[in-house]
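User: Hi! I'm working on a homework problem where we have to compare a predicted structure to a textbook description. Could you give me the structure for the chain below?
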Amino acid sequence: MKDLRFDQLKERLLSLEHGYEQKIAELSLLKELGQSLKTRNLTHWGELFGDQLDIIKRHTGIYSISLMLIDEDQRQLYVVSASNMGGSTHCTAIKLKPGEGIAGRVFETARTIYIPDVTSEPSFCNRGTCQVGALACVPIVTEGRCSGVLNFRDDQIDAFSPEDLRLFELIADQLSITVSLVRTYQEMLTLEKKRSNLSRYFSRGLAEHLLADERMSSLGGDLKPVTVVFCDINGFTPMVEKYPVDEVVAVLNRYFETVTPAIFARGGMLDKYLGDGVMAVFGIPDSRPEDALNAVRCACAIQNGIGELSKALCADGLWSITVGIGIASGMALAGNIGTPEQMNFTVIGEPVNLAQRLETICAPGETVICEKTRALLGDGLVEFDLDALGEVHVKGLQRAIQPWRANCCKKAILDCNLL
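Assistant: Happy to help. Predicted structure tokens:
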């Protein structure tokens, strides 16, 4: 009787010891998974997932493990990493729709599925991957939503116990932290790319406001009423031939530093730098009644600023510059062109071409506007002295145009200096 009680006690102690050792092994595995986040940059997330699957395989001895994540755009599960007897690999060849196959069903239901013998599962065999063994698919849940599936494969039938399945779910919970961090990091990179892209065209405050505007981050465009400003240094080519390159670059940079703030101060979009030319657009992302007025005010600010800049350049032993500015209003196509990975926001249409042509007929220090821009000035006409230039033919247009020379009156210049 005593021997029986001793044997029972011994068995109980051995069971407790085994359970204790199992818990220690689980904690060791989870700890190593957590530490792996410190050794890999989130930029190389494929390698990070590969490292973590190798850790799991080393601790569990399981034949094959793979991680599938959902591509939200394509609505497909794809393998981001796999670890088998040959080591870890980065693979995206296998793709499943939610509900398709075993992993697809796990993703759709967010519930673990265990198949003791995969030869009994038609959906598995029909994909041409049927081999003898067991398969366990565990959902990876982040922020209450299934974001992927962790697959455990063994070449032995009924290889996984209930304790194994519980461990797999613990591992999936740990990997969900990695998935969440990677997704957050990718979202931050995307946001920063959008912010950087918008900051090329708009003032910092407006760029931040436009970050949530999907129109500014997708390909395509819309017809919009805009006013285009084209500014160019008079006689720039002879300057390049006459002066040292480093001095030319220094003058250009100070010129851009003068022009760009004047554009942003009136709510304009900096479309692009074209050598010594600057193209700005008013009416993007949304048109306003005062777009034309702000464009001409912007030109006044630029002309006044260039005058002050020339004095400073001469004082620094360089040379003075003047600019010609052409302004035209009309309908234009505005939007992103390029590819989803590399896109540029721009404006295409008649007012763009006309503004550039008007600049070519400017005398040094002049601003010339088209008839439509003049008509849109409204009550703002009193801010400027406008001189009709008569009918003018410009390259690229069959019809004659009637441009106006815009001279800023003293009040307009003072207003511009306050920007």
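For your comparison, note the following. The first helix runs from residue 2 to 39. The domain at 17-191 is CATH 3.30.450.40 (Beta-Lactamase). Good luck with the assignment!
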